[in-house]
Amino acid sequence: MKVEAVGERVSVLGEAPHWDNRSSTLIYVDVLKREIVRFDPQTKTESVVTSQDGRIGTAIPYAEDSSQMVVCIENRIYKLDTGTQDKTLLVELTESAPSRFNDGKCDAAGRLWTGTMPKLVNFKKPPQGEHNLYSFSNGSLGLGAPQVSFSNGMAWTSDNRTMFHNQSIPGTTYVYDFDQNTGELTKILTRVQLPTKYPQSCCFGGKNYDVLYVTSVSHFPKTP
Description:
This protein has 224 residues and is mainly beta. It has strands at residues 14-20, 25-30, 35-40, 45-51, 56-61, 68-73, 76-81, 87-92, 99-106, 112-118, 131-137, 140-148, 150-156, 162-169, 172-179, 184-193, 199-205, 211-216.
């Protein structure tokens, strides 16, 4: 397997990679620079799609129009027009503990899944189940899994019957039974303790898409 750096940009905190089939480009966010970035593997160029005034957790194009994106910024979810840069507020979240949306992905039915994490992380006193995993569809935000400490990336098996969800704290990947029709997480199948302190995002890859890859971070930079 060949591993190489494909772009010259150095992200402060790169997260939430999403492959856009229509443009054959990779979209990801730089959380702390508050930017959405598009990488074109044909030209090997990176361009900033937008800069925002809050930390961006995830950005995913709409199926019907790739110039429109659903974007999580701090504790709000917006519809962003990348052409005009206009934002439409879809939902604003208030939890008992100060929080923001982090990494997110869409399932095969088009629901946005995203979880929350502390606005400021105190590793001397790490969060203990004060946040949640949510699904967003048809203008409504639903609770997917409660008592999450530090939500991060997620992925599904090819048959859409199993969902994986990373929690950077306590450093565990949770594996759920998943009902694609209802979007319900029916039960936790297992918890996978990883050989890293802070797992981040995850996705399936390999020739048969049967290998789950999980990224991690060695330490978290101070957040503004």
